[in-house]
Specification:
The chain is 36% helix and 18% strand. It has 300 residues and is an alpha/beta fold. An eight-stranded mixed beta sheet has the order 3-4-6-5-7-8-9-10, with helices on both faces. The chain is globular, with a radius of gyration of 18 Å. The N terminus and C terminus are likely disordered.
């Protein structure tokens, strides 16, 4: 798949692509300039593993559902060249301990606990992928003084109608079953890439995300920080038929809805599917590197 090379008009606002970014005057430090530190945060009966490394502007990277910090190693490494990057695993993911409950609020409490333990020199850029993006928006809306900027990767989309309808229910249940079964049998089990959620857990959280996104515009209205969205053009794949076409169209409609409501939001499109955090890490890192800095921020 290829990236877009031309800007796209969305509700009168030009959605930028990687081709619009400046190429001059970039400076990068090496990831190895500062050793990576590993520690744990304990709260709500769970143990959350945290890693911190790199040098420069503070940045906290939130994974998505069924995604671990180990899965995002390429993006993390690229960001650490000029950011002080913190990554972690949500409960039931990677090396985190399992939990009695898996819900949006429970995952949000993991972010709250991790950021409360950090001794950062300034408010960080909060980057979230998929579910992590939705959680980042809610965190920033509730605690505006603790975040400098948001970068949202293929999530936190204010969809105008449910993504999962009754017609989609069987398909999404099957996908959750397949994912849970694969986690039980693949080499990831017992490693930093494992996910401990059951098929029912995954299905329930996906339904909850639908509800969260139907109401997320209210959270955006509370945020005055710079917001940058990096979105896939084909979240459901490149099929032009059936439910994939509907889901892709709905994804685009959500972005247009946000830009109409919050025209200051910067949006970038990558011509790929929801796996963009794994397949397009260099492009995402470059967008983040060149994102507008909040007022008063200076280079380390």
């Amino acid at each position: 798949m290829t990236m877009e090379t031309d800007g796209v008009e969305v509700a009168g606002v030009r959605r930028r692509t990687i081709a619009d970014l400046p190429t001059a005057g970039r400076t990068r430090t090496e990831e190895g300039d500062r050793p990576t530190r590993h520690f744990t945060v304990r709260h709500d009966g769970v143990t959350v593993p945290v890693s911190r490394g790199g040098r420069g502007r503070p940045l906290v990277l939130c994974p998505g559902l069924n995604t671990t910090q180990a899965d995002l190693h390429e993006l993390t490494g690229l960001l650490r060249r000029d950011h002080d990057v913190v990554t972690f695993d949500f409960r039931g993911h990677g090396l985190a301990s399992p939990a009695e409950r898996y819900s949006f609020d429970a995952f949000l409490s993991d972010i709250v606990a991790v950021l409360a333990e950090l001794d950062l020199p300034s408010a960080p850029v909060l980057v979230g992928y998929s579910l992590g993006a939705d959680l980042a928006v809610h965190y920033a809306a509730e605690r505006p003084d603790t975040v400098a900027q948001l970068v949202l990767i293929d999530g936190a989309n204010p969809l105008p109608e449910p993504f999962i309808t009754e017609a989609d229910m069987a398909e999404f249940r099957a996908m959750a079953d397949q994912l849970a079964t694969r986690q039980e049998t693949e080499p990831a089990k017992g490693t930093a890439h494992q996910v401990l959620l059951s098929a029912q857990d995954i299905h329930d959280v996906n339904l909850e995300i639908d509800v969260v996104r139907s109401e997320i515009l209210d959270q955006y209205r509370k945020i005055d920080h710079p917001v940058c969205m990096i979105m896939s053009t084909s979240i459901a794949g490149d099929s032009t038929e059936g439910r994939a076409a509907r889901h892709n169209g709905l994804w685009r409609a959500g972005i247009e809805r946000l830009v109409r409501e919050r025209p200051h939001v910067s949006t970038f499109s990558l011509d790929t599917d929801h796996g963009l955090a794994f397949t397009h890490a260099p492009e995402i890192a470059e967008i983040i590197r060149n994102a507008p800095h909040p007022a008063g921020w200076t280079t380390c």
